[in-house]
Amino acid sequence: MVRYPFLMPKTLIVFAGDDPAGAEAIAEGARSVRFAEVDVLPIDPPPDPTSYDAVVVDAALPDVGLLGGAPLADKVASAFGVDDAARWGTLRSLADRGCLIVPPAEDAHAHGRRVATVAGWIHHARSHRHH
User: DSSP state, 16?
Assistant: First the structure.
C-alpha cells in the first residue's frame, strides 16, 4: 500500500452486538485528536482493517480472527469492554497478530484519544523517507 503524507491517520472501532455506545464513546475521544478520521462499524459484516492505521476491538467479540486474514502487523491496536480479563485476552490476541498495543484507559474518551494520538505518531513517522 502506498502511503501519502497528506492522508490523515484513520482509526477503526469495531463493536459486537446491537449497542455501539461504548464504541461511540471511544470514537468521540479519538475524533478529538487533530486530523483523526474515525469509523465505527459492527462486526457483522466483518470490516476490512487494511486501510486503517489503528483498530480498537470490542472485547465481546469471540475472536479477533473475525477481522479476517487482513494483515494487522504494525497497526496500532487496543480493546474495550467491561470485562478486564476479556480486554486483556483480546489485547494478547492482537499482539500475537503483530499489533502495536495501546493499553485501555478507564475513561472511554481518554482511551480513544490515546489510540488516535499513537496512530497519528506512527502515521507521521511512516510518512517520512528515511535514508
Answer: -
Q: Where are the domains of the chain?
A: 10-126
Percent of the chain with pLDDT over 70: 93
Q: Each residue of 90-112: pLDDT tens digit?
A: 999 999 999 999 999 889 999 99
Q: Which residue has the higher pLDDT, 25 or 2?
A: 25
Classify domain 10-126 at the CATH superfamily level: Flavodoxin domain (3.40.50.360)
Give 46's contacts (C-beta < 8 A, 6+ positions apart).
66, 67, 68
Q: How many angstroms separate the CA atoms of 128 and 5, rounded?
A: 8
Tell me the C-alpha distance between 125 and 77, whole Å: 17
Name the pTM for this structure.
0.89
Evaluate the omega torsion of the peptide bond into residue 62 and state whether it is cis, within 30 degrees of 0: no
Distance (Å) of CA 108 to CA 13, 18, 91: 12, 18, 16
